[in-house]
Amino acid sequence: MYCTRCGLQLRDDDRFCSRCGSRTAVGRVVTAYHPLMLDKRNKKIGGVCAGFARYFEADVTLIRVLWLALALTTGVGFLAYLAAWLIMPSDYGSAERMPVAPEPAVR
Predict the structure, then answer these.
(1) What is the sign, positive or negative, of the torsion defined by CA atoms of 11, 16, 17, 23?
(2) pTM for the full model?
(3) Rounded to an integer, what distance in angstroms lies between the CA atom of residue 34 and that of residue 54?
(4) pLDDT for 25-83, tens place per residue?
(5) CA-to-CA distance for 95 and 77, rounded, in angstroms?
(6) For 93, left (φ over 0), alpha (ψ -120 to 50), or beta?
(7) Residues in CB range of 77: below 8 A, 6 or more apart
(8) So where are the chain's domains?
(9) Sequence-separated (6 or more) residues with CB below 8 Å from residue 80
């Protein structure tokens, strides 16, 4: 197997190239496709940051901090958030819900 970026010959079980650090096919994790939609289950205000975090498969706190930094430094973040809130379709809380075990009654 060869690295597609630098051409170095790799072992069959290598997950990353030792020269350039690019990921090989062994290390890839296939995930389901998530459309860009408002995330109503994990929202704080409108679900915009949670929707972007689900779309990019990133931590929602990181997306919120980046969006807040953009909003406070340039002011564009506020307008972009409102535009995304109006334009992005909602998932209406239809994401898979985790089953919750009932708590035992305490006497």
Answers:
(1) positive
(2) 0.58
(3) 7
(4) 775 566 667 788 988 888 899 899 999 998 888 899 999 999 999 999 998 889 999 99
(5) 26
(6) left
(7) 67, 68, 69, 70, 71
(8) 1-30, 33-94
(9) 70
